[in-house]
From TrEMBL:
Organism from which the protein derives: Stigmatella erecta
GO molecular function, one term: sugar-phosphatase activity
Transmembrane segments: none
Superkingdom field: Bacteria
Name by which UniProt lists this protein: Sugar-phosphatase
PANTHER family assigned to the protein according to its UniProt record, in alphabetical order: FRUCTOSE-1-PHOSPHATE PHOSPHATASE (PTHR43481), GLYCEROL-1-PHOSPHATE PHOSPHOHYDROLASE 1-RELATED (PTHR43481:SF4)
InterPro entries: HAD-like_sf, HAD-like_SPP, HAD-SF_hydro_IA, HAD_sf, PGP-like_dom2
Amino acid sequence: MDSLGKGPMPVDTVSAVMFDMDGVLIDTHHAVASLWQEIALGHGKHLTEEDIRRYVLGRSPEHTVSALFAELGEASREHLMDQVRQAEPRLNFSGIAGTQALVERLAAAGVPLALVTSGSKTRVQRVLAALGLAPSFRVCVTWEDIQNGKPAPDCYLLGAKRLGIPAGRCLVVEDAPSGIAAGNAAGAVCLGLTAGDGADLRERGARYVVQDLAEVECRATPGGLELVFQGNVLITIGKEE
């Protein structure tokens, strides 16, 4: 997929990278969709794939409950949240090889990395332990850390703050429109992952769109690193001045 458009692209320069987890570092689409579809059926609702993409993927559980179950009373919504809290840490997942390889390469080069997710701290710890990537991330931001979930920029602003690097000097890697919107609102450069044409991610502010990070070459330079896609240098990664 040619995701660069026509003509030369300007090269962005960043000092850190912030990764989403679900759909970027790990594949949980089926598990997440099944969880929410099962919960919805218990309340007489049927969720379509569009509902999952629009209200679930990349969203905090609080947002999903508010959007899809607004008619429920406070006690019922809290019971529903308890169901999610109990099931979410145990969701099945598989690692996405292209992302894992890029994370390892960036971490080995000393690039500050953050994992910014709508998932729980418990699940983040489980995922990073299983993938052997816990030492790679200097910072993790989870749903417990923020009040306003994606597409609000809070999570990425907090990730940048914890890294000690302005959000405008960070690259955000996301797969969901709400996540791209959050990164864009924070002022970061956004790279989207998608199996489609990426139009929805571009509409939310993705500067670049690729199908798999395995397509992106990470190349050492005298000043740091550069990310190359289809022979084009997209992003240079250097130390924060």
